[in-house]
Amino acid sequence: MSRPKSRRELYSEATRAALLETATAMFAERGFARTSLDDIAVATQVTRGAVYHHFESKQAVFEAVFDALEQDMTARVSAAAAGQPDAWQAAMAALDAFLDLCCEDRYGRLCWLEGPLALGWARWMDYEKKYAFALIDGFLQAARAEGLLAPVPAPTSSELVFHLLGGAGRIIAEAQGADRRALRDDCAVTIRRMLNGMRA
Amino acid sequence: MSRPKSRRELYSEATRAALLETATAMFAERGFARTSLDDIAVATQVTRGAVYHHFESKQAVFEAVFDALEQDMTARVSAAAAGQPDAWQAAMAALDAFLDLCCEDRYGRLCWLEGPLALGWARWMDYEKKYAFALIDGFLQAARAEGLLAPVPAPTSSELVFHLLGGAGRIIAEAQGADRRALRDDCAVTIRRMLNGMRA
DNA sequence: GACGGTTACATACTCTGTGTACGTACACCG
DNA sequence: CGGTGTACGTACACAGAGTATGTAACCGTC
């Protein structure tokens, strides 16, 4: 384990965490483009120098925010899928957990709306290959292994499902407050039907 | 009809068209963010002043490019769907035409990859409501009217199909050259299956 | 407990690119 | 042929990202 941290290290970690917290809040509220590093710095009561000490660039700040949210998402969705009798039911449980998560401002807006805008599609997809796409591809491969899946082309079908779920995330994230639950349920119904079209 | 144009008007229209042409090419090749208005102006052998004379802003340039591509797409896809025996077969013909179009650099990259980055999701969606989404929603409503559709929630299911097709567009547009046709066909197969899940 | 080095920031500057205000030359119209 | 408007060109303002450098507090070492 890591040896006891010095006071300096603790302070440093605290400002870094504070920067990430305000960055998360402001990116979610006003979007990546409309939030300057100075905004983040001032709101955290430091200067832009501090930001550039802790992060390489504005994009790096977003990536740190983004990565944390995706890790949390992976953990929660995996937990929801655990202990289901077969791959298909696990996938459906995961789907419900995912759609719930999309109702939360930070995850829905940041990962599905702001993510591509901030990182560009290519880099955003690099991250997603580790997170959302990896989960989806895992479920589909498991379903295929259990003979539950119709013969659909392997990597492309996972990508399409990924984009379908991303679309759901965006629909939900763009709505406000109470509408979200209704949209979430509409998405759940429709997506289930569409995925059923892929069953054996 | 418009009266015969003066030489000045003709020149002006020509430079505007030239600006749109180089803008289309450069946005498709290097992306919206990495293309400056000066790049476009120089490549067209004018100055940024000319650009700002014809367009209100950089975003307005992109919108002009984008709108033209979407109009072309609407026309081509509608033509492909015309004269089919029922709504479902019309939709399938439209799907094939759409996926073909996504193989073309300008349409696929500009409308589905660069569009949201350049305009932001909200404004991009405003446009799409007039074009791709309108088409999709039209096909689904027709299918519903003909009793071909399972009871899926009306506006949301159209949006999900829209995002699904957008995902396909992105998958195809991000690939290079020869891969595209293979991916296009994989997408066609998978999407058909998923849409079949929505049939009555 | 003074001391040199390192860390965690602050300050000040550069650079790129958008947008804007204004200048100008040439085509049209009387 | 002189006035007017249009189609640009020129010059400048400004924001925000990134960089180079300064500095003060901390930390291990003797």
UniProtKB/TrEMBL annotation, chains A, B:
Look up the DNA-binding region in the UniProt entry and give its residue ranges: 36-55
Keywords, comma-separated and alphabetical: DNA-binding, Transcription, Transcription regulation
Q: State whether keyword Ubl conjugation applies.
A: no
Question: Domain named HTH tetR-type: which ranges?
Answer: 13-73
User: Do the record's keywords include Ubl conjugation?
Assistant: no
Query: Which InterPro entries does this UniProt record tie to the protein?
Result: DNA-bd_HTH_TetR-type_CS, Homeodomain-like_sf, HTH_TetR, Rv0078-like_C
Among PANTHER family, the record links this protein to: HTH-TYPE TRANSCRIPTIONAL REGULATOR YJDC, TRANSCRIPTIONAL REGULATORY PROTEIN
Q: What name is this protein filed under?
A: TetR/AcrR family transcriptional regulator
- Organism, by scientific name, is Pseudonocardia adelaidensis
